[in-house]
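Help! Submission page says 'invalid entity' but I think these are all valid:
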Amino acid sequence: MPNSQRFPYTALRNALGEVIPRPMLTAQLINREQSISVSGLVDSGADVNVLPYRLGVALGLIWDDQRYTIYLTGNLANFEARAIILSVQIGDLPPIDLAFAWVSAEQVPLIFGQTNFFETFDVCFYRTEEYFIITPKNFTS
Amino acid sequence: MTLSNLLIELDKLNRSEKLRVIQHLAHDLETEVAAEAQQSGLTPGGHYEVWSPQDGGKAVATLHKLLQDHQQTKDAE
């Protein structure tokens, strides 16, 4: 599969002390001249990408400058959110633009969700073998 | 003692004794449920976070609009 990238699951410990493998994706988030390397959950159950507040600040984003307000559901319904776009580099793949709901909460995780991570990449999960593969949609064979 | 026999015996109790049996069983059940909850890490009425934003149609539409605007700006440059 050309341009596919394979990533191992990451063993994370939950509140009960159990170790559970998660599909955590390490990516470089880029906003103009600033960039940070972070790990986020690849979550097919999330409708949108989610960026925690601290990461947006670290990337130089200014809350009041963002024009689009986002209204989220579930646990995130309690928090204000703004729509922002970041350039994201994953492995050796060319950087792509991902839109995030930048949430005014610290404790939320970085999430790669349906809009627009899963619209940009095909993802195959191999949970029993503890790895996953992502392929940019233009390179899917 | 079978349940049928037990029910026959319970029927013989007076009102006050029946009330005490109910209280005893309620307390017993509560303790049992609490122990199970502690074992599973869950507590009745507890708050458990699920961060995946689902049914976020408006949020999805907003992100699509932003992406569209962003693409138009890039194309114009």
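Support: the input was valid. A stray whitespace character was the problem, and the output above is from the cleaned input. The interface with chain B takes residues 15-16, 43, 45-50, 68-76, 81, 83-85, 97, 99-101, 108-109, 111, 113-116 of chain A (CB under 8 Å).
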